[in-house]
Design a protein that fits this description.
single chain; alpha/beta; SH3 type barrels; Rossmann fold; Ribonucleotide Reductase Protein R1, domain 1; 3 domains; 6-stranded antiparallel β-sheet; 11 helices; binds guanosine-5'-triphosphate; binds magnesium ion; binds zinc ion
Length: 376
Amino acid sequence: MSKSLISRRPLFRRGASNGGQEKAVNTQTPLRARGWKPFFQQQLSLDELVCCEPVRVMAVHRSQIEVSGEHGDEVILVNGPLFEEAQEKPTVGDWLLLERDSRKPVRRLERSSLFRRMAPGAKQVQLIAANIDNVLIVTSCNHDFNLSRIERYLALVKEAGCRACVVLTKSDLVDEHEQYREALKSYRDLPVVLVNALDRESVEPLREYCRSGETLALLGSSGVGKSTLLNSLAGTELAATAGIREDDSKGRHTTRHRALYAIPDGGLLLDSPGMRELGLADIGEGLSEAFSDISELAAQCRFADCAHETEPGCAVRAAMDANELDERRVRNWRKLEREVKRNSQTLAETRAEERAFSQLVRKVGGQARSRKNGDH
Ligand SMILES: Nc1nc2c(ncn2[C@@H]2O[C@H](COP(=O)(O)OP(=O)(O)OP(=O)(O)O)[C@@H](O)[C@H]2O)c(=O)[nH]1
Ligand SMILES: [Mg+2]
Ligand SMILES: [Zn+2]
């Protein structure tokens, strides 16, 4: 690992432009304001308490990571062996321990939550963010609204153990916006908030998800208004948003990188580019929790391996026939179950291949060393 300190910047570079309100943020201890909690504190050894300093990962670039800690923001280089394993690589929201003097990363702390997806077109997972407390699933009151996609996000959120809220943006652009809220009425424990993301007053109900010390992720397709929401909650222009355009229901991928932003007098917000694909993998509990009504019914089916099609004694089928369960929802549940199974299998194969390859590399390396030493 190379010597890593490139630059240090003042506290809360992101979001610090709002002079007056910034003061309120800094009344918290800097670490707590960045989301530091007993869960992380208790992972430190006595030695580490003396020699190391925790920093939060605010953004990840190819070979650099922007971090923020007790002494402000800095950029560190990462290209050493510490972070080679895909799962181990730091992602936005992670806590890293830096050696106090050299500013070298020592280790990554255990995560309280992790968001990941199947990397599009690849046979491995891609980390999205870590240590998130709450999630806003953002969708707009137009063609973007899609129950099956919301359910996909929900499975991811439940798996990570986060609190979720659905935010319906652009309510100011349509008259019949209540129909969207109505469509989500039957979802258990799922708050729904209708907003005009451009209007600061309208987004006030969302403040309870981003109190100081909490980390809130904004997830949703491109163009739904994630960065607009971030700016309205921050009360200042922290992230670029798409300009006005004629057909507003199409995204343009304005946000290019995931990053955490500290908002004045509040918590940290994760803004991310809209994700076209959100492949689920290595997820089990999350899916049954997101579909807890169906999983509970499925547990009552006569056959343990019931496919909920034509089997006798199928409780899921009976609920659908009685119009108590939406057929689309059942279809989506089964589709996601198959997807998780398929992707998890692919991942297991990839991991086995990687293990075999590194064993081979070790073996060849060992043989080469033996020859060099003249062993027989
Ligand atoms: N009228 C209205 N316009 C909105 C609302 N929310 C967002 N917009 C507009 O929609 C466009 C897209 O908003 P962005 O905030 O850039 O969308 P995003 O989700 O960050 O998109 P990506 O960065 O591409 O993922 C911008 O022109 C916003 O001004 C809203 O509630 N009402
Ligand atoms: Mg954006
Ligand atoms: Zn059944």
